[in-house]
Write a structure and sequence with these properties.
globular; binds zinc ion
Length: about 120
Protein backbone atom coordinates (compact mmCIF):
# COMPACT_ATOMS: atom_id res chain seq x y z
CA UNK A 1 0.00 0.00 0.00
CA UNK A 2 1.45 3.30 -1.06
CA UNK A 3 0.30 6.73 0.00
CA UNK A 4 0.67 9.73 -2.20
CA UNK A 5 -0.62 13.25 -2.26
CA UNK A 6 -1.48 15.94 -4.71
CA UNK A 7 -1.64 19.58 -3.89
CA UNK A 8 -3.81 22.06 -5.78
CA UNK A 9 -4.28 25.65 -4.69
CA UNK A 10 -2.80 24.90 -1.26
CA UNK A 11 -5.21 22.03 -0.61
CA UNK A 12 -3.62 18.63 -0.16
CA UNK A 13 -5.38 15.50 -1.35
CA UNK A 14 -4.22 12.22 0.12
CA UNK A 15 -4.70 8.95 -1.70
CA UNK A 16 -3.81 5.38 -0.96
CA UNK A 17 -2.97 3.06 -3.82
CA UNK A 18 -3.91 -0.53 -3.07
CA UNK A 19 -4.63 -2.52 -6.22
CA UNK A 20 -7.26 0.04 -7.16
CA UNK A 21 -7.09 3.60 -6.03
CA UNK A 22 -8.99 3.92 -2.79
CA UNK A 23 -9.02 6.82 -0.43
CA UNK A 24 -9.85 7.37 3.16
CA UNK A 25 -13.02 9.32 2.54
CA UNK A 26 -15.15 10.10 -0.54
CA UNK A 27 -13.90 13.66 -0.20
CA UNK A 28 -10.64 12.55 -1.78
CA UNK A 29 -12.18 11.00 -4.89
CA UNK A 30 -11.44 14.09 -6.89
CA UNK A 31 -10.53 14.40 -10.52
CA UNK A 32 -7.66 16.83 -10.71
CA UNK A 33 -7.98 18.21 -14.22
CA UNK A 34 -11.65 19.03 -13.58
CA UNK A 35 -10.68 20.58 -10.26
CA UNK A 36 -7.94 22.70 -11.79
CA UNK A 37 -10.26 23.87 -14.58
CA UNK A 38 -12.86 24.93 -12.02
CA UNK A 39 -15.27 22.15 -13.00
CA UNK A 40 -17.08 19.72 -10.71
CA UNK A 41 -14.21 17.56 -9.41
CA UNK A 42 -16.47 14.58 -8.69
CA UNK A 43 -17.57 12.11 -11.32
CA UNK A 44 -20.63 9.89 -10.96
CA UNK A 45 -21.18 7.74 -7.89
CA UNK A 46 -20.70 4.01 -8.24
CA UNK A 47 -23.11 1.46 -6.78
CA UNK A 48 -20.80 1.10 -3.76
CA UNK A 49 -21.15 4.83 -3.05
CA UNK A 50 -17.62 5.81 -4.07
CA UNK A 51 -17.03 8.37 -6.78
CA UNK A 52 -15.76 6.96 -10.05
CA UNK A 53 -12.17 7.91 -10.95
CA UNK A 54 -9.55 6.76 -13.41
CA UNK A 55 -5.78 6.82 -13.05
CA UNK A 56 -3.79 8.25 -15.91
CA UNK A 57 -0.19 7.09 -16.18
CA UNK A 58 1.58 10.27 -17.24
CA UNK A 59 4.53 8.34 -18.64
CA UNK A 60 2.81 5.47 -20.49
CA UNK A 61 3.19 2.13 -18.75
CA UNK A 62 3.78 0.52 -22.12
CA UNK A 63 7.07 2.40 -22.53
CA UNK A 64 8.37 0.77 -19.32
CA UNK A 65 10.48 3.84 -18.67
CA UNK A 66 12.02 4.29 -15.27
CA UNK A 67 9.39 5.73 -12.95
CA UNK A 68 6.42 4.90 -15.15
CA UNK A 69 4.95 2.59 -12.49
CA UNK A 70 5.60 5.02 -9.65
CA UNK A 71 2.71 6.71 -7.89
CA UNK A 72 4.42 9.97 -8.80
CA UNK A 73 3.40 9.14 -12.35
CA UNK A 74 -0.32 8.79 -11.58
CA UNK A 75 -2.92 11.45 -12.10
CA UNK A 76 -6.50 10.91 -10.93
CA UNK A 77 -8.84 12.05 -13.68
CA UNK A 78 -12.44 11.69 -14.83
CA UNK A 79 -13.22 9.30 -17.68
CA UNK A 80 -13.80 12.17 -20.11
CA UNK A 81 -10.52 13.94 -19.40
CA UNK A 82 -8.73 10.59 -19.46
CA UNK A 83 -9.92 10.03 -23.03
CA UNK A 84 -9.13 13.65 -23.87
CA UNK A 85 -5.53 13.26 -22.64
CA UNK A 86 -5.10 10.29 -24.96
CA UNK A 87 -7.05 11.49 -28.00
CA UNK A 88 -7.59 15.24 -27.68
CA UNK A 89 -5.60 18.42 -28.00
CA UNK A 90 -3.59 17.82 -24.84
CA UNK A 91 0.14 18.10 -24.37
CA UNK A 92 2.28 17.37 -21.32
CA UNK A 93 4.55 20.42 -21.12
CA UNK A 94 6.39 19.68 -17.91
CA UNK A 95 6.76 16.69 -15.61
CA UNK A 96 9.06 17.52 -12.75
CA UNK A 97 9.44 15.91 -9.34
CA UNK A 98 7.05 18.55 -8.03
CA UNK A 99 4.34 19.13 -10.62
CA UNK A 100 2.76 18.37 -13.98
CA UNK A 101 1.96 21.10 -16.48
CA UNK A 102 -0.54 20.21 -19.20
CA UNK A 103 -1.79 22.24 -22.11
CA UNK A 104 -5.47 21.37 -22.63
CA UNK A 105 -7.09 23.03 -25.65
CA UNK A 106 -4.52 25.80 -25.37
CA UNK A 107 -4.99 26.39 -21.64
CA UNK A 108 -2.08 25.56 -19.34
CA UNK A 109 -2.81 23.94 -16.02
CA UNK A 110 -0.33 23.10 -13.27
CA UNK A 111 -0.88 20.28 -10.82
CA UNK A 112 1.50 20.07 -7.91
CA UNK A 113 2.56 16.61 -6.76
CA UNK A 114 4.73 15.06 -4.16
CA UNK A 115 5.08 11.76 -2.41
CA UNK A 116 4.49 11.86 1.29
ZN1 LIG B 1 -12.19 15.77 -15.80
Amino acid sequence: MIKYRYQINNTTYKCIYFKFLVTETPHFFKTFICETLGLNPYSFKKRNGEYYIENHHVIPRAKLESGSLSTNNLLTVCANHHRQIHYGNVELLENTNDYFVYSIDGKNIKIKKYNG
